[in-house]
Design a protein that fits this description.
single chain; five-stranded antiparallel sheet
């Protein structure tokens, strides 16, 4: 199953997997969704060849920012779409219609940790890093009236 898109809504990251399909959104407009959607509200990173391509904390740095950059400007607004390093790096990563991002295997770890391995030495790592009871991540089939698979600080919860 391919991973073909990723993005965010506020600090929630979303990853889109599987066959593409067109649905009608809340307003009746056509919208492209995947077979599965993974929503992540904890620490995560996308690795390729043992190098972090993008991670959740990139959200809090301006686009183009690097280690040799000056301090993050006081007026920087991380929640503006496209203004931060996370949005910039995801856009660059997915710009060439990544046909190599086919799920090879999935490994579940302790306390809700998850690793999704793709062909070509790419890995999506999800690792809850707090002790709160809230939701860490969920996997579901968009626009289907089906239960979601939800992992929280309390373990797997009904969804």
């Amino acid at each position: 199953m391919p991973l073909w898109d990723a993005g965010r809504a506020s600090d929630l990251a979303w990853f889109i997997f599987g066959e593409r399909r067109i649905v009608r959104d809340f307003y009746g407009n056509p919208k492209e969704v995947g077979e599965f959607s993974l929503h992540v509200q904890c620490a995560w990173r996308l690795l390729q060849h043992d190098r972090t391509i993008v991670g959740n904390r990139d959200l809090y740095y301006p686009a183009g920012w690097g280690m040799d950059s000056p301090d993050v400007p006081a007026d920087f607004k991380w929640d503006v779409q496209g203004a931060n390093r996370l949005d910039e790096r995801l856009k660059l990563f997915f710009q060439d219609d990544r046909k190599d991002l086919i799920v090879d295997r999935v490994e579940a770890g302790l306390a809700g940790a998850l690793q999704i391995f793709f062909r070509g030495e790419t890995v999506l790592e999800i690792f809850p890093n707090d002790s709160f009871e809230g939701e860490h991540w969920r996997l579901f089939r968009p626009y289907r009236d089906e239960p979601h698979f939800i992992v929280s600080g309390e373990g797997i919860v009904p969804g």
